[in-house]
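Handoff note, outgoing to incoming analyst
You'll be picking up this chain. Sequence as last confirmed:
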Amino acid sequence: MKRIAPLTIMAVVAALISVGVAAGARNGAPTSVVFVQTNDPAGNSIVVYDRGSDGLLNRAGTYASGGDGGVAAPGSESDHLASQGSLVYYAASRMLYAVNAGSNTVSAFSVHGDQLRLDEVVPSGGQFPASIAVHGRLLYVLNSGGAGIVQGFRIADDGLVAIPGSARSLGLANSDPPDFLAAPGQVGFTPDGSQLLVTTKASSSAIDVYQVRADGRLSTAPVVNQSATPVPFAFTFTPTGRLAAGEAGASTLSTYALQADGTLTDPHSQPDGQAALCWIIRVGEDYYVSNTGSNTLSGYTIASDGQPSLIGPTGIVASTDPGPIDMTSPPGTSFLYAETGSGTIDEFTTNPDGTLTNLGVIAGLPAGIQGIAST
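Most recent structure output, in case you need it:
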């Protein structure tokens, strides 16, 4: 796979001084940052926000990614990439990785406080890259167009290096750009990095599990597990290692025991009565999901046996602007930020009982944004 040459010094300087002054004073001294991906087909960018001690965000800068955003077919949905994990911050190396779905590339930024430096742009290894997973020195990209390709990279001292022989086809039959319901939804490592998971959404309603070999390559074929309810989309893990997956078809949160051989057992499910439960994030002991079809967030707890339960009588912990999608929560905080496909970020603080309190709304972003991460 041919690699795009590193950016010139002038291009890097231009990226560093690229647009963006703080958008008005809000209370609270900056304590960390939140990154938002514009996913603009005419030129993808990362918008950086300072997070105050009160949880409110101030815009600090905008940085071109060196690639283009993308729009899954048919193109009218709020979820233009139809995925979770399109923008990933890796704290161990202070790197930010972003997909450029419209140009089939991945951008790598080094993070310097609230400033970014665009270090390189590399081919993604397939069509319509939509999700990224990082563990240690390994990075895998989920290319959701066409057959669906996961491509591995080694994170070297001088950048991303494609691992020969690491590409694996999911054997799907999508177009490019893919249909938003049929495109695979997320790629992610298990907490110990020994397995790599991919959700296929409506293509096959499966959760594929690959073994990760010592050389960074994957097992030749995955173990294909049918999800407990249709359209598995996004996932995270509980502290005990159970898989917690948002399944959009019946707007359900399901958990599974993931076995060493890649099989999923002991499923437990709980619907939230909303429409299109797709994205999921764990904040402390609680789990929050975005219901993009209902413009709401729901909250869950998960018992020791894996059974999910709704927080409160209905599970609805917040209403949002139209089309809630990706979420982030800065580590060690009680703050939650929900991105919407309509171009806003809804700011919340989490309460001890699992409910959310709205802090405000960040507007002025383009419709079709997707990808949010935080330090």
